[in-house]
């Protein structure tokens, strides 16, 4: 971290003593969130991800947190497989005794095609990870938090959860769904002491966006032109830390009356 998040004059840190879990914590927004939880005083961060070694992997994030003086643990799990997600939350409880905060970042963009050309397999894959995977993470995180009657969860949706994005119908539909899921969860569990919010990032410079732009430049261009979104490097492109900052704040006491919110963090691209 470059110190931008540090609070002056010994102020209480945002994640003081919390046990936090981050899905998709090996890369991009999830990695920045795991690092920020630790920098803001979390007692431990559980990093859930698919990739078990190398660049942009869960273990690499754990190493970064540990080098900076924090405590972190990697658990390999596919968020789209209920038994694996359930086991990941169980590891957090077994190791650290409770779960105070969770940020669900795991996601994929999917390959681009218009709806008439979209393969059912690709639709099911993307919706399975981005929507059903978020549901499964949420389900088991809520179960872990209910006994304490306290806890905060943030689902990373997208600006694509609010506006259409041509050529990315599974992604766009899943992210719209994540917002409905988040609002429903917030209503269902507010009397149980939980807060559940979503963040809608704009274009953020992460491995996902770089890979999409590199692998499918024509689709990226057409989608961008059709939706009016900014090009990577050509407009308002955010950094993963800027989404992490919103996520860790939403999990903090400072956001104690914020519940069921879909917070847009995009530099003002999607204005409502
Ligand atoms: P990223 O760098 O690709 O990180 C996503 C992480 O999720 C990767 O570590 C990936 O692991 C992991 N993951 C994917 N499928 C998974 C699964 N089934 N189970 C567990 N982990 C899985 O992408 P990012 O840009 O940081 O995206 C994070 C979240 O922000 C996503 O939900 C994305 O939709 C959302 N978002 C991103 C942007 C943007 O412009 N970057 C904008 C709006 C919303 P592997 O690498 O091993 O597959």
TrEMBL record:
Family of this protein: Belongs to the short-chain dehydrogenases/reductases (SDR) family.
Family matches, as PROSITE patterns: ADH_SHORT (PS00061)
Descriptive protein name: SDR family oxidoreductase
Domain of life according to the entry: Bacteria
Keywords for the protein's UniProt record, in alphabetical order: NAD, Oxidoreductase
Domain Ketoreductase: start-end pairs: 18-202
InterPro entries: KR_dom, NAD(P)-bd_dom_sf, Sc_DH/Rdtase_CS, SDR_fam
Organism of origin: Catenulispora subtropica
Keyword field contains Nucleotide-binding: no
Gene3D superfamilies: NAD(P)-binding Rossmann-like Domain
């Amino acid at each position: 971290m470059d110190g931008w998040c540090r609070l002056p004059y010994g102020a209480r840190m945002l994640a003081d003593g919390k046990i936090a879990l981050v899905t998709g914590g090996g890369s991009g927004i999830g990695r920045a969130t795991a690092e920020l939880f630790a920098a803001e005083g979390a007692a431990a961060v559980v990093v859930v991800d698919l990739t078990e070694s190398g660049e942009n992997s869960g273990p690499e994030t754990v190493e970064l947190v540990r080098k900076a003086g924090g405590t972190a643990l990697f658990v390999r799990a596919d968020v789209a497989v209920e038994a694996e997600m359930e086991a990941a939350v169980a590891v957090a409880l077994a190791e650290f005794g409770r779960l105070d905060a969770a940020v669900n970042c795991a996601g994929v963009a999917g390959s681009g095609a218009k709806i008439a050309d979209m393969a059912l397999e690709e639709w099911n894959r993307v919706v399975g990870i981005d929507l059903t995977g978020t549901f499964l993470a949420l389900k088991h995180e809520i179960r872990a938090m209910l006994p304490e009657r306290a806890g905060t969860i943030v689902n990373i949706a997208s600006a694509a959860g609010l506006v259409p994005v041509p050529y990315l119908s599974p992604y766009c539909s899943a992210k719209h769904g994540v917002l409905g899921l988040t609002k429903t969860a917030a209503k269902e569990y507010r009397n149980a002491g939980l807060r559940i919010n979503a963040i809608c990032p704009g274009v953020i410079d992460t491995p996902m966006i770089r890979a999409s732009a590199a692998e499918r430049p024509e689709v990226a261009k057409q989608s961008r032109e059709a939706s009016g979104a900014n090009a990577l490097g050509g407009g308002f492109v955010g950094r993963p830390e800027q989404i992490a900052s919103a996520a860790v704040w939403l999990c903090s006491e400072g956001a104690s009356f914020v519940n069921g919110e879909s917070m847009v963090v995009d530099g003002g691209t999607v204005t409502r």
